[in-house]
Amino acid sequence: MSFTLRDYQLNHNKSLAVTLRDKEHIIAQAPGGTGKTKQFVTIAWGAASKGACVLILTDRIKIYKQNIAEAKAIGINPKTPDNLQIKLGQVYVAMAQ
């Protein structure tokens, strides 16, 4: 990866991981500018590297572009063709409006 999470981001990710052991779905929140995108892209990369299929959805173009940029920063292939076959071990970023 080309960036390192800050201590508070690492602690938040660890807290999310602990919660996910007991729950199937969770919602996490943090104030603007705290690096949420870096956190969840890092989580997605970790899951994909273990063979999981990850789909990241967003509802705004600005956030979609931010997600693509963060994915590129850690080496995730951000190509977004019109049609694509979803494969295990990959991370996908999409937008729904």
Write the layout of secondary structure elements.
Elements: H1 7-22, H2 36-49, E1 54-58, H3 61-73, E2 91-95
Helix pairs in contact: 1-2, 2-3
Radius of gyration from the CA trace? Answer: 13 Å
What is the overall shape? globular
Separate helix tally? 3
Mean pLDDT: 80
The helix content, as a percent range, equals: 40-55%
Q: Which strands sit side by side, in order, in the main sheet?
A: 1-2
Topology pattern, helix = H, strand = E: HHEHE
Q: What are the low-pLDDT stretches, counting only 5+ consecutive residues below 50?
A: none
Distance between the termini: 30 Å
Main sheet record = 2 strands, parallel
> What is the percentage of strand-forming residues?
5-15%
Number of strands: 2
Structural class assignment: mainly alpha
